[in-house]
Backbone:
């Protein structure tokens, strides 16, 4: 892969996290998931976690000020200087503009922005059925991907599984609304800059990865 600095845009349940993990495993480019960072802050009981817990559990967006500060700090770390896959950031036009300014100030340039496109009507089933291994994070789904042996993680043998608190029907609706209102305008924002590629996310996970790799390797 020639490109190193990537943004994945897509609705909740669209497969950004899954694809970012595949790309991370294959190319060694670090996945930066703002959702994961915030969930870790909540689990650790930090001040940030306390501030964002109710917002995340209600399906709304955390303030631009908090998110921009958080991502800037992360992008200055040594481990991401050579590349990153942003998963879940930016989510608003203000975040995207702040990111552009920040990258310019630090002589960094985005290589690709990939929109993973999945119709709204498929997302609720995708999200409400998903769960993951508590130990290694491997993702599963009630309808599409159960562990081969019931109750035992295929990857690590773990036996404890969790579901995200915000992966319920009510909250998903709010999250989809937030995506459609606040995040989808980013698609034309990046189209204007000329670095947007659209990926059909409504196909087998491996095919989605293949399409992404074709764009990144082109
Ligand atoms: P995700 O894991 O990407 O679905 O994110 C889970 C939740 O974290 C979202 O529903 C938001 O509440 C919050 N969040 C993650 N990234 C952002 C962001 N860039 N801006 C605002 N809120 C965010």
Residues:
């Amino acid at each position: 892969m020639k490109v190193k600095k990537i943004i994945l845009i897509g609705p909740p349940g669209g497969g950004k996290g899954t694809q970012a993990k595949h790309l991370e495993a294959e190319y060694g480019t670090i996945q930066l998931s703002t959702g994961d960072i915030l969930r870790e802050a909540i689990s650790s009981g930090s001040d940030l976690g306390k501030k964002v817990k109710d917002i995340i559990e209600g399906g709304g967006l955390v303030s631009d000020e908090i998110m921009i500060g958080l991502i800037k700090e992360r992008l200055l770390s040594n481990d991401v200087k050579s590349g990153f896959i942003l998963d879940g950031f930016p989510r608003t036009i203000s975040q995207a503009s702040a990111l552009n300014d920040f990258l310019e100030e630090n002589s960094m340039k985005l290589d690709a922005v990939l929109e993973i496109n999945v119709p709204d009507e498929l997302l609720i089933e995708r999200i409400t059925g998903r769960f993951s291994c508590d130990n290694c994070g491997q993702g599963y789904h009630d309808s599409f991907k159960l562990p081969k042996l019931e109750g035992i993680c295929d990857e690590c043998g773990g036996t404890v599984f969790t579901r995200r608190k915000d992966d319920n029907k009510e909250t998903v609706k709010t999250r989809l609304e937030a995506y459609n209102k606040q995040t989808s305008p980013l698609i034309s924002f990046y189209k204007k800059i000329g670095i947007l590629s659209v990926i059909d996310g409504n196909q087998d996970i491996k095919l989605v990865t293949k399409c992404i790799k074709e764009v990144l390797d082109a």
Summary: Residues 92 and 182 are 5 Å apart (CA to CA).
